[in-house]
Amino acid sequence: MLEVAVIDDPAAAGAALDPVRARLLAALAEPGSASTLATPVGLSRQRVNYHLRALERHGLVELVEERRRGNCTERVLRATAASYVISPTALPAVAPDPGRSPDQRSARWLLALGARLVREIGDLLTGATAARQRLATFAIDSEIRFASAADRAAFAAELGETVAALVGRYHDTTAAGGRSHRFVVALHPSVTRPERVAVGSNAGSEAGEGILGLGTAGPTGIDGPTSAAGLTSAAGPTGTDGPTATKEN
């Protein structure tokens, strides 16, 4: 079972979003059958089997084993992943495009960057899995508390300058065997308990200041040396990096 799987097919996304089927997917973190799941979900065995067939058809559950019980065969299934992410590819006509309106301090542009990240990593993972290779990626997840909005703005400016210097130092368009990579840096307020904001209130304006989404290459990049970097998603069918891509056991 995978830890996370990306759903990019519209029909599979619809199946996963169905409330009953979503409950079945969660229950099938451990192997189960229509018979064992019927009582917990409050449906007949026949109805559960109908939903399981749909999930299996879309690759969301897989057969673990078949057991003979008298004249019947019990099919034991398991979810293909512990959790799922629906890719914007499942909604191609309305998928966000960060190239349309780049704005480093726009939360909506940051959402568009995040959607592209899900789409591209999902595609690369599919290729890497098919090739039985690991995907070469790197990520940092941290939290920082600023004393003031001014400090946050200063941090964003310094971060942009530092990133520009690093990209300018390592970006090489002529190296034989080199590989392009997508590079994204994001900063946003930490999420706490949601609070209602009265209509007309300016309470949300402070939280929106200093939001930073730094991409690279052309209109989606930052100014300075990185604007010419042209870093894009890894090329090739698997997105793995030659010697750094190791076979999965």
TrEMBL record:
Q: Where is the composition biased (Low complexity)?
A: 232-249
Q: List the Gene3D superfamilies.
A: Winged helix-like DNA-binding domain superfamily/Winged helix DNA-binding domain (1.10.10.10)
Positions of region (Disordered): 210-249
What's the name of the protein? Transcriptional regulator, ArsR family
